[in-house]
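Dissemination and training. As part of the outreach component of the grant, students in the summer workshop were shown how a complex can be specified as a set of sequence lines and then modelled as a single object. The example used during the hands-on session is reproduced here so that future cohorts can follow it. Participants entered these lines:
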Amino acid sequence: MLTEKLIKVSMPAIGRVSNTMVARNTMALALVAVLVLGLAAGYGLAVATGSGRVTTATVGGSVATVTVTSAPTKKVFSIGVTLPLSGELSSIGKIWEKVVQLAFEDLNREVQAYGFNVEFRAVVLDDGTSEEKALQNVQSFAQQGIKVVIGPATSAQVKVVKSYVDSNKIVIISPSSTAPTLAIPNDFIFRTVGSDAGQAKVLATLAFQEGVRKVVVFHRNDEYGKAFADFFERYFKELGGTAIKIPYQTGLPDYASEVAALASRVQSEGADAVVLIAFDTDGANILSHAAESPVLSGVRWFISEGPHSAEELLSQAIGQFASKVRLLGTRPLFIANPLYEDLKKRMVQRFGVEPSVFCENLYDAVKLAGWAILRAGTYDGEAIRAALVEVAKTYYGPSGWTMFDPQGDKAQQDYGIWAIVPGGPKGYQFKDVGLYERGTVIFLEQPYQ
Amino acid sequence: MVLEYQVMINTVQYAFFYLVFSIPLTLSYRTTKVINFAHANLITYGAYTAIFLHGVAGLNIMSLATVVAFLVTGSIAVLNNVLVFTPLQRKGSPPSIVMIASMGLWIVYKYLLYIATDIANYYTSRNFMSYGRITYLDIPRGVGPSQALVAGLAIALITVVSLYVLLERTKIGRAMRAVADNPLLAEISGIPRTLVVNLTWFVCGGIVGAGGVVWTSFSGATTPEVGDSMILQVFTVSFVGGLISLLRTGVGAVLIAAVENVGIALLNTYFGVPVSFKPFLTFTTLLAILIAFPPLGAGGGLPYRFLRRGRGSD
Amino acid sequence: MIDVVGFVISWLTIFGIYSILSLSLNLESGTAGVTNFGKVVFYGAGAYIAATLTTYLTLILNGVDVTETPPYDVRGIVLLGELGSRNPLMSLGLLVLSLVVAFVIAGALGYLLSYPIIRVGPAFVGFTLLSFGELMRVFLQHYEPVGGNKGLMAIPTPFGWVAESRVREVAYLGLVMGVLATTYVVIHRLVNSPLGRTLRAVRDDEVAALCLGKHVPKIKAKVLFVGSGFAGVAGVLLAYYLTSVNPNMFVPAVTFNVWAMIILGGCGNLKGSLVGAAVVTFVDRVLTFVTPYLGVTVISPDYLRWVIVGLLIVVVLIVNPRGLLPEEPIKTPALEVVSEELGGGSG
Amino acid sequence: MRAVLEVRDVAKYFGGVKALDGVSLEVPETGLVGLIGPNGSGKTTLFNVVTGFYVPDKGEVLLRESDDLVRIDGLNPNEVFKKGVVRTFQIPRLFNSLTVLENLLVTPLGQRGESLVRALLRGSWSGQERELARKAVELLKMFDMLHYANSKVSELSVAHIKMLETIRGLMTPAKLYLLDEPAAGVDYSTARKLFTYVRKLRDERGLTFLVIEHRLEILMEYVDYVYVLHNGKLLSEGKPQEVVSDPKVVEAYIGA
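and obtained this result:
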């Protein structure tokens, strides 16, 4: 609370400084000095909060205060969290930050309820969805003596930190990296989400079961999209269908040309469905252009987990399009899991946002990290790694059972089916309507009439 | 023809956007000789003016958004000129230094907008990092062409016609052209150069911002990166015009729009070239044009600098 | 307790890599006046050359059939992890090979790219190179032998065979500092020579230089060869440091970061490039120790950092375009001749 | 006397404007020739054609190479320089961030230290550098500018800037020096001094000059032959006193 106020007060002050410093030679230097002083002050603050017996800890978020009233000998464990608070994934990252806050509160309450006189503290850093920064953050954690890090988000970032964490024995738990190239045994990388291969299989089953035989796979031209599309193609062929892959470039201002090219291809190939493998921004963009195309409105649409929970998808145009093309998506989800429903409810109550993709995986990553540290009994990377595997064997959280396979990835990932249906405050809402069970998709309800 | 009619519509739509974004770039460079990186911000700020009006103030009237955006981005452009470009030019800094300064400005504006979206997100809990298409109340819709096409056509027409009238038919326009052709001479002959330059910046900045507003009715999801991810294409279009000719810039807008829409759709449908090659196509076109038709005159490389009027001809 | 030694090692390593980039950019843009906004092309080329050579050759020299098990495949990655640190001689040999090949190929690329860019005036050069960077990125994304979108990972590092991680980090830092020193000496000598004088002349007025018989396009091509070569070397060092490369690492923002360094330090002053790189990388690193305790969520410190960097660029250019450190006179024996004359005249 | 430079019927058009319209002239060896004419008469355009900035639309430019005259029109400016033609500009184009000494040292061709590899080996070029520096010092002494050797161009007065550009050209032995208004903006006595030096160089070293100058009263004192351009055409030529008394010239100047 206090720090938040401080920031609010000091921000305009900095603004004033930068406005008036236009013309003087010394002002450039002064600005550097201000920055350095600010850093020094902040650093002093950091040392103070780190070493003193502080009973109020600010955990990541702006309003969170974990008030702990216990004996002064309480042991404090810091856990590093590197999140994409800026950059490409920042809209998800902001929600994740709140999940982290909630997870640490829950974790602390839980361990203290069990009688442990310890406190876990999140050290949250922004990695800007950039590889180099992810490494910088992990190094910074390591230099602060932190042995367990939650994140980074993308596979590319995990790859960059891998060599460093392996040699410095720091446990990395990524809640959202799904690249199959990271399924490597005996390293310090753990992932609390199933790989893309699993979801691709579910999506292929879903599409085939819905009677679709020839699909165009429209996918992000990045590691996620490419791997997902390859797996989808493989499984869909095994089932007896045909898949044509069209990659599209990411980071474009708009995807209208891509969608039009997709429409041309769908028409010329006579495909009966489009499978879209996208993130939120590009997914929403593509869907809203597709909604204007008669060709694309005349085929079925299936979507990966990326666009799920993006606000832009709940517009009227996309909602209508969804029911017209009977749009169905898959996502990692242990459906009808009371813990997940509880997390969702509390996120809405507390922060006014619904959890986005991978929130439950992130939540469980935090919990697992905490319990693994306690189980290890010593704050040492190798011990924690061993303990983490053991803890995960019996842990059940919002993301379901969290057991790791020999590669350190989530062994059993359940998948749910989602749709966009009328309802909710925005007119349309996301709804989980089915689940995948032993090779078939079972619908709990029919979303589209 | 297997090409979807949407491909054609997109070509026209993109041509409108490229026109509205590139013509001011060419015009401002011609008059002020500043390669303005911060041009990207003008697009983004135009779009985000509309988005903030919609998301924070709840207004979805395009004509209002266009006027506000025109004022906002026009003022930004003038501010850039008064605070940065003019002082630098007065000190005799070479164009490359001014360009690098505009790069600094670009960074500042870009991240200021990010900060603004974060603050807006904090207070409204809406996601401004990626904002869905805005449906405006005051533009005809329903069956037929989309809102963006109507608005795009309108704004492109208004831009072209008003610039033509301004440049060809008014005193101010003649002054602008005089400053562009020979700043020194213009000043000697009593044209208030500072005023003309600032006016140019205002008009150019404003047009780009207004184009940004139209963008929000077109794009499926607008992000604070919209201007940045389009800036290379916009510069490519202006380069086709050699950064001098407004007419050739217009041709460039159509050319690049066609390459990016018809070109990639054809290549994908008939040759299986991945759609993701689209940026590759654009930049190859740029390089090919630069190599085949190097710009002459001030914009040209050393071997072409003095060939303003062509080798022996013209 | 904060691990100060670890901090210094990691900071100096990244400082070293960025310094090589900023020194080479300073030669091109500060001394010779080529506004190179495509620095990332050569940096990326170097990184990819190191990654490709090292991963493929490690597998091939260990008798692995790369057509069966390519290094971007998960089996290849696991194998690289096992094989990469076995043979010190091979690791070091691959390092030297990568450095040499990266310098030559990135340099040649720079030399060739001077063809389109001399055809366009100063206004277009920056953007032409910038678009070329995007061209390269799209190409790499689609080129499967270098991993396509996946990129390459588990790149065996030159000192992978050293058991102790701290020793390994220090050894790598030593390597980076060695390369940095070489770069500095080479570029310092180039600047303080008749060539450096001609470069500055070309920067000041290329028309006048042309009239004095200087083949300006060729001179620019030469400079781009050297500058790009060193950028390639910096890329090699980055690839080994991150042990992973992918196309999206090499976006224009990297170039702008280097530009910020040379402008803050002073265009044309080599020490300024070092200072600029040191300040920027140091502030970035120190911020990671501070920001978690600020509890900021409304305004990201990263955005604020960029706003300040941008403002500093503008302010420095307006107030004093020469940056924190002004350009130094060219040191050649001619100075001695003149001071003898001047001294003799007065005495 | 053999011609060093021969311009034959050269024409250059810009759009509809005939900047040069069939101009022919000759500059003899060791000549000190003036080129005059009202503003916009095509003097600088002629320099630009001779030095390779413009390709003439018509006609030839020839330069002596031992016993032959060879065409140099169409060559690039740097190639023209290598053939032995050095020019200065009406608005001086000096290297502003370099010192006076450095400006002079840029000029000489064939500097070993300009090669990429040799630049790294100081020993390979330092001898030559010293030699060139001594030459520069000698020239600076001759023009009384030695004490400015380490000053930046931006610190010099207009007169010194003009002089420096002329001296810069003298750093290399050339067949022909084209000086574009060397005395513009220079006070009377300095201008005279400058022309005295030029004449001395011509007499002592046998150099050849073609000089554009507006200040006829000074120019006429020094040159031995004058060409007059008007509206892109040769209006008159001859010895200074002949030209001055030519009624056509007088009319052109008064008319302008």
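The CA atoms of residues 113 and 121 of chain D lie 8 Å apart. Students were then asked to discuss how this feature might be tested experimentally.
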